Amino acid sequence: MLDPELPDDRRDQIAVDARRRIENSGELKQERSWGLRKLAYEIKQRTEADYRFFRFANGGDLLSELNHNLKIADGVLRFRIFKVDPDTPVIDPPPPFSLAATSTRAGARRREDERPPRGPEPADSEAQESGEPEAAAAATGDEA
């Protein structure tokens, strides 16, 4: 996750350096730029980051070298290195969405079609009034 306030060419340079280290000591399987995305919480007073993804096969001291270099690189907000099964497919995240488009004004009422779905209505109003002992027995498999 790279600092979005850095110029584009600096963020690209950080990614190129990481790619070069991976290719020199291992095998790069995949590289993806996920773009600017909102963070779940602030990191170094930033609310979004430029996400970059590398999938590679390890070779030698690559992990310790990457760990060291990404820790000291200016512009890297956070990074994670995970060990995954080589047969696991890569799943791309959904495209980023605008939070302004999904939020409603404070105090504004939702439209009927924006409400979450409700559960089914009770079929028998008498069972509801009597505490529904038959429905509970049917659900548990017990007979009344």
Strand content bin: 15-25%
Uncertain residue ranges = 102-106, 127-144
Fraction of residues in H or I helices: 25-40%
Helix and strand pattern: HEEHHHH
Mean of the pLDDT scores?
A: 76
Q: Terminal Cα separation, in Å?
A: 60 Å
Spatial order of strands in the largest sheet:
1-2
Rg over CA atoms, rounded to whole Å, is 26 Å
Shape: globular
Query: For this structure, what is the CATH homologous superfamily of the domain at 8-82?
Result: Ribosomal protein S6/Translation elongation factor EF1B
CATH topology of the domain at 8-82: Alpha-Beta Plaits
Structural class: alpha+beta
Name of the level-1 CATH class of the domain at 8-82: Alpha Beta
Verbal overview:
The chain has 144 residues and is of the alpha+beta class. The chain has a domain of 75 residues: 2-Layer Sandwich (Alpha-Beta Plaits). The chain contains 5 helices and 2 strands; from the N terminus they run αββαααα. A two-stranded antiparallel sheet has the order 1-2. It is globular and about 65 Å long.
Task: Give the gist of this structure.
The chain has 144 residues and is of the alpha+beta class. The protein is 32% helix and 20% strand. Strand 1 and strand 2 form a beta hairpin.
